[in-house]
Amino acid sequence: MRGQATPYFMFGGNAKEALEFYKEIFGGEISNLQTYGEADYPTPPEANDLIIHAQFKKGDLLIMVSDTFPGNTLKIGNNISLALEFESEEEINQIYGALSAKGSVHMELQDTFWGAKYAKVKDPFGIIWDLNYPKP
Asked: Global pTM?
């Protein structure tokens, strides 16, 4: 795995506002901001301006941010996950298999439009993990 687990915050339509708030409070930079409308992903028109992914960075602090997909309900407790970056397909397959064996799958391990292999899994203790292997 690469680096530390990165917190991934989910918002119910106000991710841009949250990013600006964090920038004002902590300083730092907003980067890699992409809306659902800009992504090569089928979404309803009302989601075009919502954030599908963005990052906030200040020194060693890195937070990833997204608005929930339209129709998904945001609840306190399911609005944060930990993102892991993997160095090989074998490694992500092994971790996905182990977590999903005793947990629940939110998104099957699959190839994505952003050029990675990705899955979202909740472990048996209620922790949600975003698993990502950026393909070379």
From this structure: 0.78
